[in-house]
Amino acid sequence: MMLITRILVGGILAGMFTVAQAAGLTIEITKGSQTAVPIAIVPFAQQGSIGNVKLSDVISSDLGGSGFFKALPEDDMLTKPSEPERVNFKDWQVLGQDYMAIGQVVGNGGSYNIQFHLFNVHNGQLLMGYRLTAGANELRRAAHHISDLIYEKLTGRKGAFNTRIAYVTSVRRGNGKQFMLQVADADGYNPRTIAESPEPIMAPAWSPDGSKIAYVSFHTKRSEIWVQTLATGQRESVSSYPGINGAPAFSPDGSRLAVTLSKDGSPDVYVLNLGSRSLTRLTSGLSIDTEPTWSPDGSSILFTSDQGGKPQLYLMPASGGKASRVTFQGDYNARGRFSADGRSLAMVTSSGGGYKIAVMDMASRTVNVLTEGNLDESPSFAPNGSMVLFAANRGGRSALSVVSTDGAMQQKLAFESGEVREPAWAP
Amino acid sequence: MRFNKTYLALAMTAILVTTGCSSTEEEGLADSTQGTDASTSGLADGSMSGSQFGSGNGSSFGSGSNLGPEFSDPNNPLSKQVIYFEIDSSQVKQEYVPVVAAHARYLASHPNQHVILSGHADERGSSEYNIALGEQRSKSVERMMRSQGVTASQLEVVSYGEEKPVVSGHDESAWQQNRRVEVGYQ
User: Fold this and answer.
1) Do the Cβ atoms of A243 and B157 come within 8 Å?
2) Angle at B170 between CA B166 and CA B174, to 5 degrees
């Protein structure tokens, strides 16, 4: 029986496998990396009441989904130690593991004491020993924190597992639809609706400190840009000019929004000062100029323009001036977003076929197409630059997907019903 | 086996070392946990007050009840209240010029009648670019109507981009029905 299970797991691994399932949400690794580092996260020993969060599953899913690691399925483990002195490294060497982690979690009447140890399997070296406490309902966060610690220790880069995403879902309701702006953990868990409307909601954008979200709502039957504070739920309309009020993007200092307005004719990029509400127009002419985003140093604004006939990306000084074209490959390049270090630029690209996600290296200007989708949209980088989140529409099903910036690993967050679009990874 | 024991001993030393400095680590986490707490409860508040935006008057498109019989006569161009477009184009196609002209004539002779020209795009490409494209389509229709004597105050232009498809399929036959401007009599 055990043997059959293992063979099955192995067989599925070669193609596609389900890592975790929560209410309405499925996470699938749809493309695995060949060079991923094998790591075993042994189920943590439990004392007291823990609830239904299994820390080792969350950590395995995080690390496996990053593309850098391949997490050993629990069924393949020969032993499941939880204390350092009980680890026999040979057990893990024969399974081809490079690293392993063990741990314990003690439920303490609403809070949890967690301890874990990370080892190098080849030489038995303890790489990390760590103790932490988590409050009620914070076990998943604690697990993501452990994933971050392990990831940073082994890759030298900061993890992005304890981060959030925003996205818009829509479901059929009566003759129409209901649109919901939601904020969830980066793995899609703990979704919360922060605004809903029977009219479209679009373009959520995070403030640099993650405390606010700007978005477009059509609930007045016209487009308006709103800024909502997450902690209080308080929101205000900051732009309701005639025509388009769209594509908000916070400046790196949080004081301004780059927006698209069409009040003066064709869609153009403006900068809206959130304090004084004054507007500075950046683009003009008959072309469509939209989807502005700031370079991380705040000096430039990148936007989509069809001034050359087809939509392409252009870069201009944030204070105004001449725009220079950035993309030359493909018929269609739009919706650019920089990585936090400004070295990479994610975009939607098309060369006549489908719409895919590509990343440009800003230094060499080389473009790497990361996805094979037909209708991929709305890319945004993880805060550590390792992954790109985007919306994918395949065979009529819409899902959020995450692809590693080298394209080697792809993971999908599929929702049970309705559509999910316009994801934005929090800073 | 001895190999393992040696390293295990090293490991135990290391654990003592890490435990020694783990107080700061723990504090660091406590802080971040607290931060977490704040943001979690903040979100909970957010969702409580993330109440539904007022749906207002759910008036449906193009069904002005006080419009004359010419609007339901299939031989009259006024019965056509949707204008379709080519891919990535906002130019009114020749076959729809008489349709726009008929609506323009009607509006010019009924100066108190208002219409909303809502522009739409198919789902391909980025959403905000499609908002822009939808608006250019509705503005093309608006320009033609204005040039035929319709006043600015009779016309309102709004773009929904790819947000409100009439057909939910993902092929060319669906897309061509979604690239449109709807003439909505108010």
Assistant:
1) yes
2) 40
Contact (CB<8Å) A84/B11:
yes
ipTM exceeding the 0.95 mark: no
Q: Measured between alpha carbons, how far is B4 from A87 in angstroms, rounded to an integer?
A: 9
Using the beta-carbon criterion (under 8 Å), do A192 and B19 form an inter-chain contact?
no
**b/e per residue, B62-77, with b = 16+ CB within 10 A?**
bebeebeeebeeeeeb
- pLDDT digit of tens for each residue in chain A (427 aa)? 222 222 222 222 222 233 333 445 666 767 777 788 999 999 999 998 777 889 999 999 999 888 889 999 999 999 999 999 999 999 999 999 999 999 999 988 889 999 999 999 999 999 999 999 999 789 999 999 999 999 999 999 999 999 999 999 999 888 889 999 999 999 889 999 999 999 999 999 999 999 999 999 999 999 999 999 999 999 999 999 999 999 999 999 999 999 999 999 999 999 999 999 999 999 999 999 999 999 999 999 999 999 999 999 999 999 999 999 999 999 999 999 999 999 999 999 999 889 999 999 999 999 999 998 889 999 999 999 999 999 998 767 788 999 989 888 888 887 766 789 999 999 9
Chain B residue with CA closest to A375: the answer is: B124
Distance from CA of B99 to the nearest CA of A (A): 24
Cα–Cα distance for residue pair B140/B136, rounded to 1 Å: 6
Strand partners of residue A346? A337, A359
For chain A, say whether B166 makes contact (Cβ under 8 Å). Answer: no
* CATH, domain range B69-185: 3.30.1330.60
Helix (H) / strand (E) containing A108? strand A99-108
CB of A405 within 8 Å of a chain B CB? The answer is no
Q: Across the interface, which of B47, B48, B126 has its CB nearest the CB of A377?
A: B126
Q: Give the span between the Cα atoms of A369 and A335, in whole angstroms.
A: 15
What chain A holds in terms of domains, given with CATH numbers, is 20-27+34-155 (3.40.50.10070), 164-425 (2.120.10.30)
